[in-house]
Amino acid sequence: VEGKTEITILPGSALDLSCNATGQPRPAVKWIRSGYYPIDPAWVKADEKYAIWFLKVSNITEDTSFNCVAQSPLGFANWTISVRLLSDLRPTWKNDFLVAKNEDGEVAVHFTDDLPDYLKGSQNPWNIYWTDNPSKPFETWNLIPSNGRPLDRIAIPEMEPGAKYHLVIEQPSAGIKTPVFDIMTPKAASDIRVGTDINGETVLDFKPALATEPIKKYIIKYWPDSNPSAVMYMETPVNVTDKIVLDGLQPEIDYNFMVTAKFDDGDNLASEPTKIRTPSEDIQCHCAHACMFEEDEEGMIIASCYCHNGFKLADDKKSCEPIEEDEEGSIVQVTPPTLIPESEHPKELTTMPTLFNDLLSKSEKFDKEMEILEPKELAKIKPSQTDEFGRAIWQDEQLVTTSRESVSDGFSLISTDSSQQDRVLSP
What we know:
This protein is mainly beta. The protein has helices at about 95, 355-360; strands at about 1-10, 15-20, 30-35, 40-45, 50-60, 65-70, 75-85, 100-105, 105-110, 125-130, 140-145, 155, 165-170, 175, 180-185, 190-195, 200-205, 215-225, 230-235, 245, 255-265, 270, 275, 290-295, 300-305, 310-315, 320, 345-350.
């Protein structure tokens, strides 16, 4: 008996292969190398009536094939597994399959329709493995089982905003693991500071939001703490987050400030409100960037200098100097691919109370080119008969491989998943 099965996977995927045979006398089963990838490590599980030869192959980056041979006095079978990589993938294909979102402070990973067919649909099981440290042994990564859910939106509350994580998706019935996906969990704008510059103007600084999706702009929202209905807004380009001049502020008043990142796809990511008291008009600032004012232990208003992002106070506590790279530690900065001329400056939208949602909808008029993508031409798999995972099924003489099906006269199938547990296949 000879046969062939084709499996289509993503570049960099891993496969758990098994070649199973049962019967008396027990057949001998082994792998024969037929491509670039080695057939070691491999191991055998057997008793008097069956033999299973397991093989794990990682980081498959080119088309290849594997041969499984089973033999006993009753017959001989040879099965070839042909592994093909998905074609017509864009250079940024890893970013096309999943995106992390910050939804009311909770991280959720959204999986797109670009996923391979074997990961789609409520009938296909899956496991998600994730970690913040890819050097850890894979068996120690966090595991999220499917539990009958489709792979679309998966909330992962254990993930922290503004951090980098590594994620692998497994289809356990087919024995396929995807390559590692790197994701950055979004984090809203932070470290909002309001002060006075050397010209006496009230200015606002904030640390940019972190996200893998392109940020279109920021909306600054501020209002008196005693009058939440008197809301004012200001819009700033994505590359202007320092020394933004604010108008309409009264001295010695508590204000609340929020900064909302607006994404190209229409989503918003808002910061938490920050309450800041504006200084009195008669206080002078002699700092290079800006001053913040606060009360000391005796109730006196004192000024302290601060610097914009990427700078720190010098020894004179007034001027600013760049922060060295080794001082920044492992901070991950994400620069949105949005080009804005340096001549652009923040613009005030209104100083009258305005509904925030109305404001955003009015400012969304922009031209956007739609990219027409051709459907992916996936490799066609045409064994004589297949189950839902594309595994060849033979009625009489059977040889079982990763597509998990069969061997020779007098042999019966014992099918296993990626953890080598027996499973039942539907007819």
